[in-house]
From TrEMBL:
<comment type="similarity">
    <text>Belongs to the bacterial solute-binding protein 8 family.</text>
</comment>
<dbReference type="Pfam" id="PF01497">
    <property type="entry name" value="Peripla_BP_2"/>
</dbReference>
<keyword id="KW-0449">Lipoprotein</keyword>
<protein>
    <submittedName>
        <fullName>Lipoprotein</fullName>
    </submittedName>
</protein>
<dbReference type="InterPro" id="IPR002491">
    <property type="entry name" value="ABC_transptr_periplasmic_BD"/>
</dbReference>
<dbReference type="InterPro" id="IPR050902">
    <property type="entry name" value="ABC_Transporter_SBP"/>
</dbReference>
<feature type="domain" description="Fe/B12 periplasmic-binding">
    <location>
        <begin position="55"/>
        <end position="324"/>
    </location>
</feature>
<feature type="signal peptide">
    <location>
        <begin position="1"/>
        <end position="24"/>
    </location>
</feature>
<keyword id="KW-0732">Signal</keyword>
Length: 324
């Protein structure tokens, strides 16, 4: 799990990409595409694009789904690294895109796709030691974007999600699609908020993984905001990172009412439940004593287009009486 939780390092401002250089002056210069040139600052990297990328590669599921939600599958030259199946609404579009690797592609496999842009979901997508660093890509004339959950200045919220989708829409020349998506997302979240009005929050402990310690959701990631909007209170909101380790003694002391299990990988939900239920040190924790578990797939809990529906899904588990 450490690959997806890497703390982003400081990134120096990159020179403008050769592929994004200003058009030549004079009467023969091509007319810029509508909305371009477009300059965006993303995770410390400033990029100016003269036109939308045409051969992008996405690495990590949630950024792939952002592209598919905006109808940009024809702008993708490849994709990589799923945590689970893509949403059914995007399955046909996803199947039209070449899969470069089950996990991260090698530098050689990435460059073989001839990308003009790489969009990564986690900092590990841009592993400099593997030759995929953002500065290395820039030297090859390849633009890049990192999902902003991993370079935010403070706690991440749905406002950051709206910004992510808006900036991706601008980058690929479809700002109208991004605006429609954010309008729909706002409406969905408002409807959930209305149903939960006047209900007391339920205390929630996220169990991602771990044995000697509990790997859990902290207060800086979108998962914390998701829990809050679903009518919960993250008992480790004071953990100053998106994810981190907590001692089991802390779990006991904070007495969560519900355990939220993140479903992914080779360890099943039932195995995670059994690990918690069989631990005698946890027997008096209210959530364990009452066997109150909620479940979300990992891909629901990161900064991507699943968040509005995931808030509704979690709210139904935390407050079943208020479910639609």
């Amino acid at each position: 799990m450490s690959w997806r939780r890497t703390t982003p390092s400081a990134l120096a401002l990159l020179p403008l990409l050769a592929a994004c250089a200003a058009p030549a002056a004079g009467p023969t210069a091509a007319k810029p595409a509508p909305g371009f040139p477009y300059t965006v600052v993303n995770c410390g990297v400033t990029t100016t694009l003269q036109a939308p990328p045409r051969r992008a590669v996405t690495m990590n599921q949630h950024v792939t789904e952002v592209m598919l939600a905006l109808g940009l599958e024809k702008s993708l030259a490849g994709t990589a690294y799923l945590d689970d199946a893509v949403l059914p609404a995007y399955a046909k579009a996803y199947d039209s895109v070449p899969v470069l690797a089950k996990e991260y592609p090698s530098r050689e496999a990435l460059l073989a796709a001839n990308p003009d842009f790489v969009y990564g979901g986690y900092t590990s997508a841009f592993d400099a030691k593997a030759g995929r660093g953002r500065d290395d890509l820039a030297k090859s004339g390849i633009g890049s974007r990192l999902n902003t959950e991993y370079c935010a200045d403070g706690p991440v919220s749905v406002d950051d999600l709206y910004r992510e989708v808006t900036e991706v829409g601008r980058t690929f020349g479809v700002p109208d699609r991004a605006e429609r998506w954010t309008d729909d997302a706002r409406a969905s979240l408002a409807a959930t908020e209305k149903r939960l009005k006047d209900l007391d929050p339920v205390s929630v402990f996220v169990y991602d993984s771990g044995d000697k310690t509990a790997f859990t959701a902290g207060g800086r990631g979108i998962g914390n905001d998701l829990i809050t909007r679903a009518g919960g209170r993250n008992v480790f909101a004071d953990l100053d990172k998106p994810f981190g380790d907590a001692a089991w003694e802390q779990v006991v002391a904070r007495e969560p009412d519900v355990v939220l299990l993140y479903d992914y990988g080779s360890t099943t939900v039932e195995q995670k439940k059994r690990r918690l239920l069989d631990d005698p040190a946890l027997k008096d924790v209210p959530a364990i004593r009452n066997r109150r578990f909620a479940v979300l797939p990992l891909s629901d809990t990161v900064l991507g287009v699943r968040v509005p529906a995931a808030v509704d899904k979690l709210a139904a588990q935390l407050h079943p009486a208020a479910a639609r």
